[in-house]
Amino acid sequence: MTSKKWMLIAVLAFCALAISVKEIGDQINSFQIIFFRSLFGLVVLLPFVKQRLTKVDFASLKRHGVRNLFHLIGQYGWIVGIVYLPLAEVTAIEFSVPVWVLIIATIFLKEKLNSSKVLSVGLGFIGVLLVLKPGFKAISSESIIVLLSAVCYGIAHVSTKKIVQTNSPFDVVFIMCLIQSPIALCFSFKNWGSPTVLDSFWMAMVGLMAIVAHFSLAKAIQVKDISSVISMDYLRLPILIVVGILIYNEPFELFLLLGGSIIFFASYLNKILSQNLTE
Q1: SS3 210
Q2: Contact predicate 159/63, CB 8 Å
Q3: Which parts of the chain are beta strand (E)?
Q4: Long-range contacts of 232-235 (CB under 8 A, 24+ apart)
Q5: In angstroms, rounded to a whole number, what is the distance separating the alpha carbons of residues 138 and 251?
Q6: Residue 129 in contact with residue 179, Cβ under 8 Å?
Q7: Residue 43 burial by CB count (10 A; 0-12/13-18/19+): exposed, middle or buried?
Q8: CB of 67 within 8 A of CB of 163?
Q9: Are 170 and 211 spatial neighbours (Cβ–Cβ below 8 Å)?
Q10: From CA 256, how far away is CA 93, in angstroms rounded?
Q11: Residue 86 contacts residue 142 (beta carbons within 8 Å)
């Protein structure tokens, strides 16, 4: 299968993941959703542990702990956004994650800040301002939570970059599910919701679509360079705008489309320019 087909599957799976969370977010609390997503991942990955899991030392476990702390917070914020905000707004803000990665990697990994990165960060912030529209309307607490979740995802991605120097991607995903499932379960007890048959279906979809999305993305990148296919990720924004309007009666906002487009372009531009500099 071609890289573009794999990327299209990833895009559709990410959209289906957002829709699945939207469908159950009012009945099932966010940590319960994270618990079942992690549990689903464990069930799928456990048969491959003996063959694929590499030896993890204490130092690596500490790095995994830091990564998963921020990834868990990021997931929680993303789910809150999906439940209470238009799908397009959450997606547009989510596109800012690579911009935060640039900033965090520069500060903590001492990566060189070149002109393409500065341009990407500047455009990214302009896009975020267009999405949030400060001064034109009150910025909701949910929007701030989603923005902070994007920052947390940025920290998690930077941590992943350090971890994969000594551990495999399988280690990252399996240990993520292993750490996050008991933590999410503990936070779920207070507001545990009893899922209906339909809720159970949507929770299964959350787990399945998460695995399909990340596996397809990895396959797309494996077949072809990331800069050649990642532009297709932008399709999530118009798809979820249409879904939001048709299914959830969400209003169309030009600023969301414009801001999200600028944020995505900023991230894509940095990938292209950085690749050209290394060639």
Answers
A1: helix
A2: yes
A3: none
A4: 232/4, 232/7, 232/8, 232/11, 233/7, 233/10, 233/11, 233/14, 233/264, 234/261, 234/264, 234/268, 235/8, 235/11
A5: 17
A6: no
A7: exposed
A8: yes
A9: no
A10: 9
A11: no
Which positions ≥6 away from 217 have C-beta within 8 Å?
6, 7, 10
Number of other residues whose CB lies within 10 A of the CB of residue 60: 18
**Cα 249 to Cα 12, 213, 246, distances in angstroms:** 20, 26, 6
For 62, residues 6+ apart whose C-beta sits below 8 A from its C-beta are none
Longest dimension (CA), the chain: 55
* Residue 77 confidence (pLDDT) above 80: yes
Q: Read off the pLDDT of residues 180-223 as tens digits, 9 standing for 90 and up.
A: 999 999 999 888 888 889 999 999 999 899 888 888 877 776 66
Residue of 65, 90, 49 whose CA lies nearest to 243: 90
Q: For residue 261, what are its two tokens?
A: 């487009």
Q: For 4-41, write each residue's pLDDT tens digit.
A: 888 899 899 999 999 999 999 888 899 999 999 999 98
Tokens 């940095």 locate to 270
Pair of tokens at residue 64: 């995994």
Of residues 95, 159, 104, the one with CA closest to residue 123: 95
**Quick one: tokens of 271?**
């990938």
Contact 205, 69 (CB under 8 A): no
